[in-house]
Amino acid sequence: ADVTITFGAVKRGLLAGKGPALCGILKTLDIGLENLAGNDEAVTFDEAVKLLPDHPADVHKNRRGELLVVAGSTEYSGAAALTASAALRCGSGIVSLATVGARKNLPYALIVREFSAVDGVLPPDIWQNISDFAEKSSALAAGPGWGNVHPDVLAGALKFQGPLVLDADAIYKELLPGADMQTLFTGVFPR
After folding, report:
1. Quick one: which of 73, 111, 124, 127 could link to 147 by a disulfide (CB 3.0–4.6 Å)?
2. What is the pTM of this model?
3. Over residues 31-56, mean pLDDT
4. Any residues with CB less than 8 A from the CB of 143 and at least 6 apart, and which?
5. DSSP 3-state of 108
6. Residues 169, 147: contact at Cβ < 8 Å?
């Protein structure tokens, strides 16, 4: 392309791999979001690499930590697949996925526990069935593709005793009354 217009902020793919060669002149179009990239500066690949931790050449997956992903619904099963795949790609040692209806398009490297949906979403008692996953996990990603889950699903995630990332579907005023939240995505604020 001669010119590529990206909305809101520069995306990673425009700066990595073949992106710079294929996008031509790169323009960022302001669509009313708060400045997501900090003074309109993008992080280059070389800068991002410097931010990554050093790992010995012989590092093993068991030394990279274990991430538990609790994601998906019958309507949004792709969210579970995308989240778990991204976790593997960014260097998580072992990734375990608890989900409903997402057996398609999953990386073989995942440990998957699939549940029957209740009204199309994760069952309220899911934490009783994945306590073994949660106990051995060093971090938790919860919320992608949840849809309208039972409050017990979020309550279980909030009991996790380690780093926790909540995706937008887990962030609702009804589920987190009085909580102090930070988000880069302004579409979450009305919730």
Report:
1. 73
2. 0.69
3. 65
4. 70, 71, 154, 157, 166, 167, 168, 169, 170, 171
5. coil
6. yes
